[in-house]
Amino acid sequence: MKNLYVGNLPHSTTEAELRNVFEAHGAVEKITLVTDRDTGRSRGFGFVEMTNASEADKAIAALNGTDLGGRTLTINEAKPKTDRPRGGGGGQRFGGGGGRGRDDYRGHPRQPREPRW
Prior knowledge:
- The protein has 117 residues and is of the alpha+beta class.
- It contains 2 helices and 6 strands.
């Protein structure tokens, strides 16, 4: 059993189309097209699980760089999620000036304020 990553898919690709492309090279166990959680639209990549590892290697060799629906496919062996480093620049997702406190505005100490009551 070997899991293949298939990238740069046309957004219109169906599971049946992808199965047909890969079954020419060996037995296909499972097809997973990744879709956007919010819109349900294809994200342009998916995974093909092939029963036989040597057939999967032949499929990679034969199909990587080929054209499907006007797009050049990227095909390689899928890596488990835990092995891939997470992107996103250190995890800070929301802007912010970072490291500067309220009392540190342009080098001037904060002036005491009169109470509001």
